[in-house]
Amino acid sequence: MSDSTAGTDLTAFGPVSTVEEDRLAQYYAYPENLASCWVRANFISSLDGAATADGRSGALGGAGDRAVFRLMRELADVVVVGAGTVRIETYSGAQLGVPERQRRCARGQREVPPIAIVTRSADLDHDLAVFTQTEVPPLLLTTHDTAADARARFAGLAEVYDCSDTDPGGVDLGAALRTLAGLGLTRVLAEGGPSLLGTFIADGLLDELCLTIAPTVVGGGSTRIADGHRELITRLRRRHVLGDDEGYLYTRYSRD
């Protein structure tokens, strides 16, 4: 269908073929031969733009969303989250089965991706699941002012990195990405929360957004998937739209 007034061609999607499980990874493959970090964000939203229900993003998900979530973790070198999301969503280390580990090894990746926590204060309880239920120690991406004390407090529990730039009391995401690239962790998966995504967008560092649209409306005062930072219009290109029988849509947009 063509809108001659607006000069826009509209496309009706469907019917389409089923995406077999062994082909799904092709839809979410990272660019090859990365020399620096490629930042992919994975979020879920209701139809009316809510990023959470009952305070948690997991309340919006379904079986298909959880399958795509697991696949993206399998493909990533590192999972980046904010400290608030670690607390609210009760994060543990990444859990992968034998087939996923074998595929990762075949791609030259470590068996399990570490969780990298962005935190200015490193004010995290030692008994959080991200420290106690994990095969690999998490990475704490923190400030110059906090790093030395954090290394002492989290010795044996986490690897701590100074990710400040000009402000010794702030985490600079550009510096954090350079740190991850130096560790060989270039396939970045950012999972939350809204403030962290807002910073990636505001700093011009977001390469790709994978957004699951849940077939629900939430209402109320729930936050958006990106929040708390200045606006920056970033044009992205649609890569795919997938759907399932429950009515969920799985979209992927990226830079050219």
TrEMBL record:
GO BP term, example: riboflavin biosynthetic process
Keyword Lipid biosynthesis: no
Pathway recorded for this protein: Cofactor biosynthesis; riboflavin biosynthesis
SUPFAM superfamilies on file: Dihydrofolate reductase-like
Domain of life: Bacteria
Keywords, comma-separated and alphabetical: NADP, Oxidoreductase
Any one GO molecular function term: 5-amino-6-(5-phosphoribosylamino)uracil reductase activity
Bacterial bifunctional deaminase-reductase C-terminal domain boundaries: 38-249
RNA-binding keyword on record: no
NCBIfam families: PRK14059.1-2 (NF010664), PRK14059.1-4 (NF010665)
PANTHER family in UniProt: 2,5-DIAMINO-6-RIBOSYLAMINO-4(3H)-PYRIMIDINONE 5'-PHOSPHATE REDUCTASE, DIHYDROFOLATE REDUCTASE FAMILY PROTEIN (AFU_ORTHOLOGUE AFUA_8G06820)
UniProt protein name: Pyrimidine reductase family protein
